[in-house]
Amino acid sequence: MFDHGYHAGLVIPREGLERFGEGLAEAWLVQFPDADWFEFGWGDAGFYFEVPTFDDVTLSIGARALLMPSPSVLHIATGRGSPVEVFAASDHVALKLSDQALSDVLKFVERSAVSPDQLVPVLYGVSAFYDGRGKYHLFQTCNSWVSQVLRAGGLASAPGPSVISGGLLWDLQRRYGRT
Question: pTM for this one?
Fold first, then answer.
């Protein structure tokens, strides 16, 4: 799990999608044939598209995203090599998952997208957006989604600290150690 400042992302190696993926994961493997890993994030569609950098956040955009339930998107960023090197500016925690846990995590992630049809624009690098399931709001944020994904895989993750990415990272590092 990577903490990018205000948003958390969950990285799954290509092998995980190859071994445990179903319909959507299979489509993602085809769409990103050169990817060694996939970083998944979920969030407010408007926020993702209107706020390319943290400096672009305004009070009205943030309030609208949190206070008015809004459409969601699943974001997939991919890369080659080490995600730790690619996201060197982001803090992270490495989590060891059993095969069953990884399978359950991936099923949750796949259920978070409506279809394999990509939306535009991309956020950064080799990435894509997909229509998401569920509404984004104060009690269902990008970071709480990551916490829910982990709990679906049987990992302990407290919902309270996951309101902000730093709280989610703190909780996971406290439980599973720093990396």
Answer: 0.91
